[in-house]
Amino acid sequence: MQKVRAKKxxxxxxxxxxxxxxxxVDAFNSERKFNKTLEVGPGMGVLTDLxxxxxxxxLHIVDIDRDSIAFLKEKGLMPENKIIxxxxxxxxxxxxxxxxxxxxxxxxxxxxxxxxxxxxxxxKDRVVEVVGMFQKEVAERIASPEGSKVYGITSxxxxxxxxxxxxxxxxxxxxxxxxxxxSAVIRLRRNDTFKLNCNEKRxxxxxxxxxxxxxxxxxxSLKSLIPTELKENxxxxxxxxxxxxxxxxxxxNLLD
Length: 256
What we know:
By secondary structure, the chain is of the alpha/beta class.
């Protein structure tokens, strides 16, 4: 079979190290809480081959790259109706899995890796777990706690519904072609929050508004929203990176 050429416009960097691939797969669904699984961006199938060895997973794969799809079909390792050529970001995941719980795994294309997580967030009532490869700085931002310099919008919005673990760092030389930065694998597991104790749309809006002026205190970045009688509240003395998810919920209720 002819090797698939990685395409820069698709953000592809194919993982070549089988040990790292195995560690990534071992981290996925280790608690055996679900069966339906979607691998995003399988490329030449280094993760796919290992996932297919797992008898606890009902695997589907999706890739927008027709060369990758043709390559994986030619390998003949899984039913063709579970190999999907298409754009993950446009997929109806409830339709794919008939409303069942599922997990997502992948050596994600770096140019859409954050969008992949926000897609998972749209299906937070069905997505049990996500394990993925990201650029290291993106992984650190997603997993960082409040108080960190890289804690931001994605940190808060994802940590509101998922427990996030930074698993391990990956060097550049285990990819073809090598990226210019280090990578990392993180795991997101759905937490027990079914619904935030606030207006969730308002919560998202306030988080984004606060971090858009992250060097300012909340009193200054949100001044157009703060009623006069609340201006002395201590929470407004903080900068956005100092607020936990719970404090952003509290803030949302104060301003609502």
